[in-house]
């Protein structure tokens, strides 16, 4: 059986006891004093050294680290029943403890044991050791993620369109600044600006509304908000305003070329004509919601933003049965299709009620059911948040209670999945396209839920969701470029492909159960759901990046003050 460091020794090492004092406070004995026999000194225990051998991918921990006071866990495939933590500098073992009983990770089709080293709070760099090897090093620190949060926000600078950007090897001159032609007409419109949506250079209103909301709500709800979040979001808001048809208030669904360019084309190299796809109800309602939300963050633009939001709402009122968006003929760029705009209208009504107090929006909310979701397609939770945190005295007590119950029911559902999983996520058995977004959205849901109920365990679970994204997952893989020992090197992102190196701070989609691209299907057919991921630039279903996958990760990091 493996020798385990005695618990007392572990505690001593943690507490730093046993170190000798400098003796300056001792009074020397006078020379004529009678000799006294010195008491026997306790023997200093030899520190145990365990370098643990090679790094093994069977130990899955956060590859950046943990804060001293937070819960710290790793999942390990092992027959061992104990583990140790060693200091990275000298191999000294600082903690030894028992592993959990074996636990099934169904989505990964494997059995693991969980190492809980929450007792270790001494800042430093460490690795976890079993008889098979050791983990990647990680830190325990007040700021274990360093500049990760800033990088996740900086990603939006790299995605800027319509302007020259200075960004090292990813710099580019002004792009996509020409007028766009409105689909099926000869009319043109200036819709320059904003952010490129993803690995392609399209600009889409529906996912943009989610990304803007995440950045603004992060600013509003973070213990230490980043002032840069507001000018960052404004670059996209200015573009959103251009996407509205002044005559009707309706909002064009997207502006793209007719098809995607080659994968190694920089933004300025995409020279095909830009086309504005038709107005859609989801784009228009999302626009109304996100512009009404934005109105409270930019006082000087408040009136213009509210007027734009109200005009979009009026389009929605006049078009109650407008069909969901489908790509028009000969346009093959991202569709962001959605057969129902009910939840988008719900979000818009909640934001407009919070912003204006006009009872007409209240009546609309009361006339329909409640919705949830922090995605681009299901957006109801943004409406709940607008009402629960923004309506103040104007809120109806009964409706407020129903909305609170709705959001907390979502939290309980997430906690149910999380509790059954030895890894840090709450995805259950299904990893949809962009699963990293769902992981981050669930973290955001839990943190906001914890502010409505006395549930500190929600915050603890949300932290584990961040640890999942940074290595506490069945692939021992970080899903954020440039962060973690094993991070994506080949994201499906044109500027990264063209430059030959990944822009840092980008959240990739992560495992995708549906195997929705040929490269992923060829590589991962037959794999369990949680392992259907490849770090391959061709895998748009598992290794692309988007603005609305970065935005909820930024939101969660800001809420958690990481
Ligand atoms: Zn561009």
From TrEMBL:
InterPro entries: 6-hairpin_glycosidase_sf, 6hp_glycosidase-like_sf, Cellulase_Ig-like, Glyco_hydro_9, Glyco_hydro_9_Asp/Glu_AS, Glyco_hydro_9_His_AS, Ig-like_fold, Ig_E-set. GO terms for biological process: cellulose catabolic process. Keywords: Carbohydrate metabolism, Cellulose degradation, Glycosidase, Hydrolase, Polysaccharide degradation, Signal. Residues 1-22 form the signal peptide. Residues 57-132 form the Cellulase Ig-like domain. Its EC number is 3.2.1.4. It catalyses: Endohydrolysis of (1->4)-beta-D-glucosidic linkages in cellulose, lichenin and cereal beta-D-glucans. GO terms for molecular function: cellulase activity. The keyword Ubl conjugation does not apply. The active site is at residues 492, 535, 544. Residues 22-49 are annotated as: Disordered. This is Endoglucanase.
């Amino acid at each position: 059986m493996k020798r385990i460091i005695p618990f007392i020794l572990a505690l001593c090492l943690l507490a730093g006891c046993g170190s000798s004092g400098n003796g300056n406070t001792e009074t020397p004995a006078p020379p004529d004093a009678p000799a006294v026999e010195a008491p026997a000194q306790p023997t200093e225990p030899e520190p145990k050294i365990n370098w643990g051998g090679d790094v093994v991918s069977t130990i899955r921990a956060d590859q950046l680290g943990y804060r001293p006071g937070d819960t710290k866990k790793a999942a390990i495939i092992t027959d061992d029943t104990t583990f140790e933590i060693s200091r990275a500098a000298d191999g000294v073992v600082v903690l030894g403890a028992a592993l959990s009983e074996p636990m099934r990770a169904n989505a990964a089709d494997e059995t693991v044991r969980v190492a809980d080293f929450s007792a270790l709070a001494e800042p430093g760099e460490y690795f976890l050791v079993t008889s098979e090897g050791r983990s990647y090093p990680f830190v325990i620190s007040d700021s274990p993620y360093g500049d990760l949060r800033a990088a996740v926000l900086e990603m939006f600078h790299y995605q800027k369109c319509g302007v020259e950007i200075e960004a090292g090897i990813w710099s580019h001159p002004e792009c996509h600044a020409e007028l766009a032609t409105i689909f099926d007409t000869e009319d043109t419109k200036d819709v320059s600006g904003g952010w490129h949506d993803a690995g392609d250079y399209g600009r889409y209103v529906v996912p943009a509304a989610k990304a803007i909301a995440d950045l603004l709500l992060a600013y509003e709800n973070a213990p230490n908000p980043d002032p840069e979040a507001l000018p960052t979001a404004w670059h996209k808001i200015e573009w959103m305003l251009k996407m509205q048809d002044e005559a009707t208030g309706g909002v064009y669904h997207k502006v793209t070329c007719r098809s995607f360019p080659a994968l190694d084309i920089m933004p300025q190299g995409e020279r095909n004509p830009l086309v504005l796809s038709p107005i859609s109800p989801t784009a228009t309602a999302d626009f109304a919601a996100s512009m009404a939300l934005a109105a409270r963050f930019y006082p000087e633009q408040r009136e213009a933003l509210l007027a734009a939001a109200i005009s979009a709402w009026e389009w929605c009122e006049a078009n109650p049965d407008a069909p969901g968006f489908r790509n028009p003929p000969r346009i093959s760029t991202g569709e962001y299709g959605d057969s129902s705009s009910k939840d988008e209208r719900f979000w818009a009504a909640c934001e407009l009620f919070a912003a204006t107090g006009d009872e007409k929006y209240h009546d609309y909310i009361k006339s329909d059911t409640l919705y949830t979701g922090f995605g681009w397609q299901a957006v109801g939770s943004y409406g709940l948040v607008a009402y629960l945190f923004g309506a103040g005295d104007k809120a109806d007590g009964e409706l407020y209670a129903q909305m609170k119950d709705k959001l907390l029911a979502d939290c309980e559902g997430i906690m149910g999945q999380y509790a059954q999983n030895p890894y840090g996520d709450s995805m259950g058995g299904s990893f949809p396209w962009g699963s990293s977004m769902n992981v981050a959205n669930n973290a955001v849901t839990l943190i906001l839920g914890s502010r409505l109920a006395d549930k500190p365990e929600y915050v603890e679970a949300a932290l584990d969701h961040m640890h999942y994204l940074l290595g506490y997952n069945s692939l021992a893989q970080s899903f954020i470029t440039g962060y973690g020992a094993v991070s994506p090197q080949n994201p499906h992102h044109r500027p990264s492909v063209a430059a030959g190196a990944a822009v840092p701070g980008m959240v990739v989609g992560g495992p995708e159960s549906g195997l929705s691209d040929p490269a992923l299907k060829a590589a991962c057919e037959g794999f369990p759901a949680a392992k259907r991921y490849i770090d391959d630039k061709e895998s748009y279903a598992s290794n692309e990046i988007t603005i609305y996958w970065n935005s909820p990760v930024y939101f969660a990091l800001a809420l958690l003050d990481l």
